[in-house]
Amino acid sequence: MRDRLNELQEYAKLHSQQYPEDAIEKDILFQTDHTLAVMQKEIQSIRTENHLMKVDVKRMGKQTTRFLTSMRRLSSIKRDTNSIAKDIKARGEGIHKKLQNLKAINEEAEATYGKNSATARIAKAQYVAITHAFQEAMSEYNEAEMAQRENCKIRIQRQLEIMGKDISGNQIEDMIEQGKWDVFSENLLADVKGARAALNEIEMRHKELLKLESRIKDVHDLFLQMALLVEEQAETLNIIELNVVGVQDYVAEAITHVKKAVEYKKKNPCRMLCCCCPCCS
Fold it and tell me: How much is the mean pLDDT over the chain?
């Protein structure tokens, strides 16, 4: 039989030159790093926008407090509040679009590397975290708008008290929906300037409440879209939780085995040589 070892070695050398393993590994690593780099850039942009939106929400909260306590410049406070709300809405819609792009990147990573790959799992975890951060910011914005709505109702109730009308909160809600504030003007005398001014104030607050209701509706529309995203993530969160629990179980089991091995080694030091040396008997 002819010795073909040298021929095999030459063939292996030629194959390694044509298909170097390092090049394949570097190519895979480059693709993975590129995917995560693109995703990280998008996430950083969303985090920045989300932070700015939270800052705007705090500003709106301060304006809401001023609206209830200030006796002057209500029109200026109203303009500032409307401007802030407009910025928050635009920023929220922009973040939502970026989250949709992030979702597409995440799905692409799963299709390219597999759902159980490290790249896909990292991408999914980042996507889930940033989505919940946005949901939290939108919840704070919704609370600020609802607080503004309550403050409008309080001012209306105060003006009604000036007019000598004792109206409950439920009655005010009904009047807000119907907009029938003219019922209070029937018994007003022409020379009662304070009462007429109070009625004008009520009508102004009602118009503001209508605009506020429209803004709150826009927030709720975004909440519905966010709810769909969160619902899609529920299964992933359960899988992540199961994986974490599984890892904890494996670690606990491994620690138990290691302790048993150490204890066994201490009790039987001579048996470590049995595989190498013949037993003396």
Answer: 68
User: Measured between alpha carbons, how far is 11 from 165 in angstroms, rounded to an integer?
Assistant: 101
Q: Is 167 helix (H, G, I), strand (E, B) or coil?
A: coil
Residue 82 has a CB neighbour count (10 Å cut-off) of 16
Neighbours of 181 (CB within 10 A): 18
Spatial contact of 188 and 195, defined as CB atoms under 8 Å apart = yes
Give the pLDDT score at 277.
47
Structurally, the chain folds into a number of domains equal to: 1
Q: Where does residue 60 rank: exposed (0-12), middle (13-18), buried (19+ CB within 10 A)? A: buried
Q: Is 36 inside a domain boundary? A: yes
Count of residues making up the chain: 281
145 falls in which pLDDT band (50, 70, 90)? confident
Residue 100 lies in a domain: yes
Of 182, 207, 187, 185, give the one whose Cα is nearest residue 196. 185
Tokens of 9: 């070695």
- Which residues lie below 8 Å from residue 228, measured CB to CB, with a gap of 6+? none
Supply the pTM of this predicted model: 0.57
- Whether residue 131 lies inside any domain: the answer is yes
C-alpha to C-alpha distance for 272 and 152, rounded to whole angstroms: 83
Distance CA 103, CA 126 (A): 10
Which residue intervals of the chain are DSSP H helices?
5-18, 21-69, 74-113, 118-162, 169-178, 193-267
**Block residue for tokens 């009520």:** 202
Query: Is pLDDT above 80 for 88?
Result: yes
Instruction: Give ∠ CA 135-136-142 in degrees, rounded to 5.
Output: 90
